[in-house]
Design goal:
Elements lengths: L2 E5 L6 H9 L3 E6 L12 H7 L6 E4 L5 H12 L6 E4 L3 H11 L9 E5 L13 E6 L6 H17 L5 E5 L3
Parallel strand pairs: 1-2, 1-4, 2-3, 4-5, 5-6, 6-7
Length: about 170
Amino acid sequence: MRTALVLGGTGMLAGCVAQLVAREWRVVLPCRTQPLTADDGPGRAARASLSRGHRPTWVRADWAEPSKLATEVGYELEGHPVNLLVAWVHDSYRVSVLNAVRHLLAEGAPVVEVHTSAPVPDPVLPHPTQQVLLAHFAHDATQRTNRAVLEAVDRALEGRAPSLHHEDAR
């Protein structure tokens, strides 16, 4: 089973996470509080991989403790590499968190980074990276955000050249 690590996936990216799960990806969600849609508890990884219609796997994590976050995610992965990284991490934690999880990625695994302000920084990781710059939307923000990020995921998984996509209301 392919594994996606989604950093920042419990809010505006919940629809993206749901689509990855529907596409039969194993999705690991590190965050401070358990989202309602995630699985937790002993044996959660086995339940997720064996059950039809599985849910993402929640791992308790805090951006302020990137090495602990990476350790917890690594424990949950049980030695399996991450085949896709989707990251929407606040600028003040971005570099340290991405570098902390770097060793968990499979060689050449694509990365999708989500940003909300320009200028968009250069990618942190030496992996093919699709970047999405989101503008502020008056309505349907969640729907537009998820569509834009899923399009970037699809570009990444198709092996397209790294690019920046600007999603706005125009």
